[in-house]
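Contributing: when you submit paired examples, paste them exactly as shown. First protein:
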Amino acid sequence: MNSIHIHFGSDQEFNNHIISLEHYTNIMDVLNHIGKIEYVIKGHDYEEKPLDIDNLVLFTDDYGSIKEWALLSFSNTMLENKKVNVKNVWMNNPPKRIYEDIIRNYPKNIITELKTTYQTVSIEMLKVMAANFNSEVIGQDSVIKSLLASLYSLRSPNRKKPITMLFLGESGVGKTETAKYISTFLGGEMLRIQFSMQQTNEAYQYIFGAQHGQDSLARDLIRRESNIVLFDEFDKVPISLHNAFYQLFDEGIYVDGNYSVSMEKCIIICTTNYSSEEEAERKLGTPILSRFSTIVKLHQIRIENKIKIAQKTYDHFFEKLEQEDKQLIQNNMVLSFYSDMISKGYYKNIRILRNDIEEAINFEILKAREIIE
């Protein structure tokens, strides 16, 4: 073995590290070769030469193809197997058991460890964020001050723990949009976990980690591209599972049976549909609520701001149309119709408003093309 490169973090960054490799072998090829049945003709001496592998590459999802028993002796079972001759290994996000096995069996001088470094919060970033917030997230003017105060704490050189924000407010008032706005300043795609998609048993396995080959929160966190994470509909997490988040919120470390993930100086945003801090404490409980750095209440959006959102939404979808379609519907009444509907008290949920405007634009095009009446 010449070298072992271990990377923890973003899949994209790992791909950039191996882009210069002219050729590499994946773990499935190795497993197939090792498991191949050899037929030996009696009376003939024959020993197959080991397969020469210049670069063995293991991506984050590859470890699921390795049997559970092989994790503890990965070096002997895979890398030092007599059927292969591996010269260099490139690994992204190996589970703890494989990592510990590598460290135990190979000299330090051939092992290189790399971790994804995430963009940090700067003064200039906060200035731009403050200047543009009200034009990007319309109708939540009071929110930005709380956000900036919380984000500023990440500039402390002594701070290791993440900042944790709990967003309160009805569905469709801009909670997810606010999280996305913050993420645009931090590079990479925000990791979004939707807990509403999981039932209790599925949530338990996902949060605490089941078999190493299954999806898990720890594996999603370790491969994140950006240092901002959105836990959408956090109120859907059963209270019995909240203890899984205590160390994450308090120390910035998330641990399950397969991974130990550093979340140093991460921005963690949890959304709920609760209308007040009192309701959140009653439903979530004090132990988890007290661990949030900031609690942000997003209010119902006023009618004049909803009309601004309708205008912005209409402009966004209209600009994406082909030029021919723009000309066909240039005198349409979509925006005036929805502005009138908003003025009459409709559309508490902005997400529904956006969807309806997009659909209405498409209907106008279909009518103009005489596809529908």
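Second protein:
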Amino acid sequence: MFFLKPETWNLIVSALPFILDRIRGSGPITVAEFMELALYHPEAGYYAREARRSGRHGDFYTSVDVGPVFGELVSVQVAEMWRLLGEPRDLFDLVEAGAGDGRLSRDILDRLAVSEPDCHKAARLHLVERSPAARAEQVRTLGPHAATLASSGEQLPGPVSGVIFANELLDALPVHLVVMREDGLREVFVDAEGDHLVECERALSAPCLHAGIEWIGGRLQPGWRAEINLAALDWIGAAARVLSRGFLLILDYGHETAELYSPSHSAGSLRALKGHTFAGALPDGSPGEAWLQEPGERDITSHVDLTAVQRAAEQHGLETLGVLDQSYFLIGLGAAELLARSSGAGISDVRRRMALKTLVLPGGLGSTHKVLAFGKGVGRPSLQGCSYRTRVT
């Protein structure tokens, strides 16, 4: 296998040839393997080729794209976690997984430098990101905080004493896709017909897929689909192992198991995004095979199973400190007070008000995105952001 120089990454926009080669060489592949190639292939993967995929000129929006106020509020939680860890306060690991070019960490550090200078001084920043293009931009993005960067790489550092956080990481990890039939559970694979990718069904690629559904109490009726994110559970286990003492903070969109395994999600949640538009769905609302099209040019995502993530964290020795809508998390951190202080008519105040409303109003990012907070070796503190610890819609 050969690897292209960074300046030529943007010349390749399709992972299709690599996927077809894999299928022709070894037969149909799992959806998880398809997503791994489409999203993370080092030469043609969707995330590998660009430093940033979100925002107005990207394919989707994240809370970070709304503006620096999101990082400003998260910094309040980070500072509280730093204080809760106690002495020595001059050693504090701040680890962002799925960090991209480092914008969220920069926004957090911007605020800490002003409101919590001792915390900012103690922070040793570690950015975890698979995309070489994004990693190449991190120092420039961090700007005056570049000296804080202790490491940048593809794997979680360890041991970590501090905070590991991930914003919209788990939803982008490869998933297995299963469907219930009258004679039992089947797995959806990706096959090729000429140069076109198509679905096919086969026996499960691993027995743990069936066991995983039973483990979380999922119930599928004949014809229903569901995604099983083994990679997310593996990542939670890895984070728990490297965290010697401190906190794990997950911000992502998803639902609890009971909602994902219900008539409202019977077609599954796997979708492809391009230009802020989901790939066309069938009349019954199911995605059809649109998510197979243009691999490497579209984001592919699925809802996170919050129940599975929480259970995995607890099985790996973490203590659940809160599971709640992002709205309530940000309100607990002072979003309402920030909104009240941004009542002026100036353009900066108007922008902050719009950003805060986007982040917390029902029906937007505030209700679709959830927050899961865990602790290890810190007891069961009442975190400021988890004042509404069980508020999930």
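If you have annotations for the second protein, write them as plain sentences, like these:
Confidence is low (pLDDT under 50) at residues 1-12.
The longest strand covers residues 243-255.
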